[in-house]
Amino acid sequence: MSIKVGVIGAGAMGRNHARVYYEIPDVELVGVADIFAGNANQTAQRYGGKSYTDYRQMLDEQRPQAVSVAVPTGDHLEVALEIAQRGIHLLIEKPIAFNVTEARQIIQVCADCGVVLTVGHVERFNPAVIELKQRLLQGELGRIFQVDARRQSPFPARVRDVGVVIDLAVHDLDLMRYVTDAEYTRVFAETQRQIHSTHEDLLTALFRMSNGAVGTLSVNWLTPTKVREMRVTGERGMFHVDYITQDLYFYENGTTAGEWDALRQLRGMSEGRMIRHVVNKREPLRAELEAFLRAVRGGPVTVTGEDGLKAVMLAQAVIQSSMTQQVIKFST
């Protein structure tokens, strides 16, 4: 049976949601809403449905069963409540809300109204991340010692309402606990504002995880090239995942040779093979929206509201640490 869907917010991300819905069988895009008529009209003309400048009118006239919310973060609460109270299932682009209080309100209202709520942490659907997660669960790395993530790029003129922590770091704050199956116990962070008019555009953070691992996170809007990667180091070597190319590499620890090797002494741990794992590449957003639609049809929710809440809590702790110059501790 075909599912009627709508998209609220027809900026860059919302247009991609509309495109993917258009491409998925048994899905009918019935409406696109954006406060800028040109955005809504262009997207609806290309991918179907009727365009609106008032999302409430779209919800009432088209009565979609499911909606993607891709509006600015500060508007998430208002839009989510309007959707849930109409009994419509929703996917909210990350972060779930502007702060922890609003995130909890969204989760509670969706639970009270009995609607599916999922959060658009799209990197969880990256095939290379999925492969990494499975290999870590199977114990291929042994004990995890360290997790290092970098997410860097040029400044995006489109982002004005939040800084780099809320807009970008939430991805890796979520992913580091997801792939390691561990929670954060403490964090210390430094931020700077170099280009952005009101918010931070550079972050360097240090974490301790509940499994004993140390984590580092480097995020900014100041790097000329786009970098999206994570390295997980453990007993048997190191995994390296490139989110952009969807490649996963494993650098194994080699065995120590019998004879003295000056180069090995300088390197420390001896080097073994580098293995490039086969990853079946596909668009993460397509996988994310298919998972959302399965949940609408009664399947499990892959990224829950609680997952989104934890990412926002961590982001707020990072900002608090940078402002107070204090280590922030979490109860596990």
How does this structure look, described?
It is a single chain. The chain is 36% helix and 28% strand. The protein is α/β, with parallel strands linked by helices and 332 residues long. It folds into two domains: 3-121 and 285-302, 3-Layer(aba) Sandwich (Rossmann fold); 124-282 and 313-329, Dihydrodipicolinate Reductase, domain 2 (2-Layer Sandwich), CATH 3.30.360.10. It has a nine-stranded mixed β-sheet. Helix 4 packs parallel to helix 5 (100-113). The chain is globular and about 60 Å long.
List the helices and strands and how they pair.
Blueprint: E1 3-8, H1 12-23, E2 27-33, H2 37-47, E3 50-52, H3 55-62, E4 66-69, H4 76-84, E5 89-93, H5 100-113, E6 117-120, H6 127-137, E7 144-152, H7 164-180, E8 184-192, E9 202-209, E10 214-220, E11 227-234, E12 237-242, E13 247-253, H8 262-267, E14 271-277, H9 284-296, H10 305-324, E15 328-329
Parallel strand pairs: 1-2, 1-4, 2-3, 4-5, 5-6, 7-10
Antiparallel strand pairs: 7-11, 8-9, 8-15, 9-10, 11-12, 12-13, 13-14
